[in-house]
Amino acid sequence: MKILAAIDIGTNAIRLEVVRIEADHSLTTLSQQKETVRLGEGEFATNHMSPAAIERGALVCARFADMARGFGAEEIIALATSAVREAENKLDFLERVNKEADLDVKVISGPEEARLIYLGVSSGAAIGDKRCIFIDIGGGSTELILGDGNDYFRLESLKLGSIRLSNKFLQGEKGAISPDKMQKLREYVRGIVSHTTRNLTDFGYEAVYGSAGTITNLADITARRLGDSPSSLLNYSVKVSDLQSSVDMLAKLNLEDRRKVPGLDPDRADIILGGAVTLMTILENLKAERLIISDRGLRDGIIVDRLMQEAPSSPLFDNTSLRKRSILQFARSCNYDAEHAKQVARIACQLFDEMKRLGFHPYGPKERELLEFAAYLHDIGCFLSHTNHQKHAYYLIRNADILGFNDTEIAIIANIALYHRKGVPRKKHENLASLTRPVRHLISVLSAIIRIAEGLDRSHLNLVQGVRMEPAHNPDRLILTILSEADCQLEIWWVEENKHLFETVFDNSLSISVHKPE
Questions:
Q1: Domain range summary for the chain, segments of one domain joined by +
Q2: Would 2-108+301-315 and 125-295 be classified into the same CATH topology?
Q3: Helix extents (H) in 71-169
Q4: What number does CATH give the domain 2-108+301-315?
């Protein structure tokens, strides 16, 4: 195992991530830190970083380097982007950081920044073979990438950013921004991005991902304005029209009122519109209807890139199994009972297929996958306490950094784990109140299935080799046939005692029999 740290020295903020590389090359995050520094404040008009900005940046770099070393980091990779890249006095900053933080900071080009952003964002999303456009709007530059889950095809870096444009067009503005100024800003951005966006649309794409502070803040504002309450913005999907409404709302507010908008970092209130207009102009040119949000970016890409150099064949880079790998890594971190979890997952999926065959639910592979993942995690609450472990499992899943899922999917998995042993899902429950009716119904169906599957390995001895479900009449009921060499008395007893949810959801009584496999 090895401790590795990445420091992203951006135009607006400096970010730190410290990870432990496990023996199987998976990653465990030990710390994430961010400090707003504004290295690029006033720079783009003079091409010089101010002495105050250099001092702020060196201080934060020294603090983050000390923190990383405190975690035992054997290697600290520090990369600087647009503000340092374009400053004529960049050596003053680099020498100051070297002296005060003992860091050898590397300044990277725009395309290299785009490549690392691609690695960071794509490693946290289940993209597969889908061709996607990735947008990252920083303080000084905007990166556009075309790629799929396996590789990138185009890397573009444009001199557009939240600080750069705000300083150029909105410097000193404390009131609402007039429509004329917003239009001038849009026209300026369009003149720079049109050639690039035309080339990207010519290639074709299936989805657009967005990352970095401008985009995550706009998504958070929009989610709250719409009444959504995602616990994480990771892979949160938002309509472009809803984002535009948020931008229009922000432009009508003065600076002081902008700082109070729910979801907006107050430190970003004076620069948000420069980045927001850049984003919306790009999305308009792309004719995109939705944007998927990523909370990953350059610092994650730095770590992925370093790991690829050490272990290029690591399963970390097998994008097709990203979701399952992320689930299993989390399960292992909670010391789960792997054999029991695998058995429950296998039986649950068989029951799902049987009920689908009989026409008792309309769901397909996506819902089946969520059921399987919930089965792997259903008992992880025992990591904290066996008493009410289903509640602990819900809390752990809802607050975990599980890659490749959106917030609704995480909520579904967490709720299936919550209801796997007792309770009936009801709309009035706080954990279900913010979910739509179709999602609540899905949770009821999958919870009913997993409760039976859990009971069919009550002994944790893997006695059940398979299951069949058949309808019977006089009276109408479902017959669950357990295929096993053993009599499975404990499993039968538990299912008989806990079949109420299943019978309620599927509106049928349940009978059980045991047959030896043929």
A1: 2-108+301-315, 125-295, 321-515
A2: yes
A3: 82-86, 90-101, 110-122, 162-169
A4: 3.30.420.40
pLDDT at position 314 over 80: no
3-state secondary structure 198-255: HHHHHHCCCEEEEECHHHHHHHHHHHHHCCCCCCCCCCCEEEHHHHHHHHHHHHCCCH
Dihedral sign of CA atoms 288, 294, 298, 301 in order: negative
- Judge residue 45's burial from the number of C-beta atoms within 10 Å of its C-beta, 0-12 exposed, 13-18 middle, 19 or more buried: exposed
**Superfamily name and number for 125-295:** Exopolyphosphatase. Domain 2 (3.30.420.150)
Separation between Cα atoms, residue 418 and residue 392, nearest integer Å: 8
Tell whether the model's pLDDT for residue 320 goes beyond 50. Answer: no
Q: Is 271 exposed, middle or buried (0-12, 13-18, 19+ CB in 10 A)?
A: buried
Residue that is written with structure tokens 């060499």 in the block: 485
In angstroms, rounded to a whole number, what is the distance separating the alpha carbons of residues 385 and 375? Answer: 18
Could you read off the pLDDT of 473-489 as tens digits, one per residue? 877 899 999 999 988 89
Q: Pick from 375, 370, 451, 381: which is nearest to 412 by CA?
A: 370
Please state which CATH number belongs to domain 321-515: 1.10.3210.10
**Structure-model confidence comparison of residues 208 and 323, the more confident one:** 208
Tell me what pLDDT residue 234 has. 77
Q: Cα separation of 469 and 472, whole Å?
A: 10
Eight-class DSSP state of 321: G
**Spatial separation of the C-alpha atoms in residues 144 and 136, rounded to whole Å:** 7
Record the pTM. Answer: 0.76
Note the pLDDT tens digit of each residue in 148-203: 988 889 999 999 999 999 999 998 889 999 999 999 999 999 999 999 999 999 98
Q: Are 464 and 518 in contact (CB under 8 A)?
A: no
